[in-house]
């Protein structure tokens, strides 16, 4: 019962309720406490939501104080106090609430605090991993050169957990691989340049026999594995970080929703979408975007009356596409927020963490700090 509740709490915390803010101001939540004792299971994100309206600004809440030189190294039992430095709120650590929370090793009359491996994280991946996908976006030609599934020990054309499949290549014994189905080719909307080839993870397995034709035993399945799928090593580039560090996106131009993971027309809360920006654009896991859709263009008819989009004539559509006094652009419409969890060269994967309206391909992704945004 604890994990489902924790998951609901995390999602609720990511459903933000904000007004206009500036890039230089931390907005404290109404009724914020003056101090807080770190509990087992807390994350930096959790603690920041106790104090801030904008949790992804958490690094600045811990900044500029000597007591927390590294915010990742605070532990259950630590007492944190809110102070103001040059008018800005900061958290400082008063110390542990019990000796068990901070063990000491005595080498002299004074004790020293030893480093521990269980410092609290930013956002724990395990709380949201059930909503994420392990698809990849790779170079099309590169994918075509990777080892291929030929068939399997089972006479069936569809292979699942426990089946052994045959691969056309010498693979390292014991190495873990993923079997990937070729998906969509992604293109830049404006330039038409190829951004990458979607590779959809069907299953994972381990090499149990190596040779000209190697054998992989399937250990997990997300969909049926078939002949023709390509197998890729499950290395560090295919895995996700254990923890996320949420922060506001910083882009000179808006990113766009490139596609929905499910290939449906619309996506909602806890659905995954592709973005048309990646590491080459400075995107990192943990980046938070606000999602907006372009406002409609309202045409003023010859009688001086506004014409709704659905009622425009062909002539009025032409006017709407030109820059005239009779075509008025309405404000962009807020649709939700998105957390990037996996990044490739030119494309990223993001989880929609809150929505006020369905998200569609082509929706704009902008830095949340620079706009008015609301949670549901």
Automatic annotation (TrEMBL):
Keywords: Signal
Recorded coiled-coil stretches: none
LysM domain span: 34-82
Signal peptide positions (record): 1-23
SUPFAM superfamilies linked to this entry: LysM domain
A Pfam family annotated for this UniProt entry: LysM
Protein name in UniProt: Peptidoglycan-binding protein LysM
Organism annotation: Shewanella morhuae
């Amino acid at each position: 019962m604890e994990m489902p509740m924790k998951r609901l709490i995390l999602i609720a915390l990511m459903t933000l309720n904000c007004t206009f803010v500036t890039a230089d101001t931390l907005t404290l939540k109404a009724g914020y406490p003056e101090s807080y004792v770190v509990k087992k299971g807390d994350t930096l994100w959790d603690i920041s939501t106790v104090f801030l309206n904008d949790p992804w600004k958490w690094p600045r809440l811990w900044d500029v104080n000597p007591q927390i030189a590294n915010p990742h190294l605070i532990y259950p039992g630590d007492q944190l106090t809110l102070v103001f430095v040059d008018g800005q709120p900061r958290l400082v650590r008063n110390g542990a609430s019990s000796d068990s929370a901070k063990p000491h090793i005595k080498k002299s009359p004074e004790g020293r605090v030893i480093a521990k491996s269980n410092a609290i994280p930013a956002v724990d991946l395990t709380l949201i991993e059930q909503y994420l996908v392990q698809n990849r976006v790779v170079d099309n030609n590169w994918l075509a050169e990777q080892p291929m599934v030929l068939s399997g020990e089972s006479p069936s054309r569809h292979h699942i957990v426990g089946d052994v499949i045959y691969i056309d290549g010498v693979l390292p014994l014991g190495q873990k691989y993923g079997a990937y189905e070729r998906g969509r080719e992604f293109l830049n909307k404006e330039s038409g340049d190829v951004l990458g080839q979607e590779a959809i993870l069907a299953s994972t397995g381990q090499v149990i026999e190596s040779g000209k034709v190697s054998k992989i035993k399937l250990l997990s399945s997300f969909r049926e594995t078939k002949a023709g799928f390509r197998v890729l090593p499950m290395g560090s580039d295919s895995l996700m970080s254990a923890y996320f560090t949420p922060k506001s996106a910083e882009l000179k131009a808006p990113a766009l929703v490139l596609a929905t993971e499910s290939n449906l027309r619309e996506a909602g809360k806890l659905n995954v979408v592709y973005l048309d920006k990646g590491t080459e654009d400075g995107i990192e896991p943990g980046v938070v975007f606000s999602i907006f859709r372009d406002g409609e263009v309202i045409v003023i008819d010859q009688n001086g009356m506004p014409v709704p989009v659905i009622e425009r004539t062909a002539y009025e559509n032409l006017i709407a596409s030109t820059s005239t006094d009779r075509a008025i652009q309405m404000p962009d419409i807020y649709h939700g927020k998105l957390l990037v969890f996996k990044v490739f060269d030119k494309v990223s994967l993001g989880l929609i963490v809150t929505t006020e309206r369905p998200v569609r391909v082509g929706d704009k992704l902008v830095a949340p700090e620079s706009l008015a945004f609301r949670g549901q």
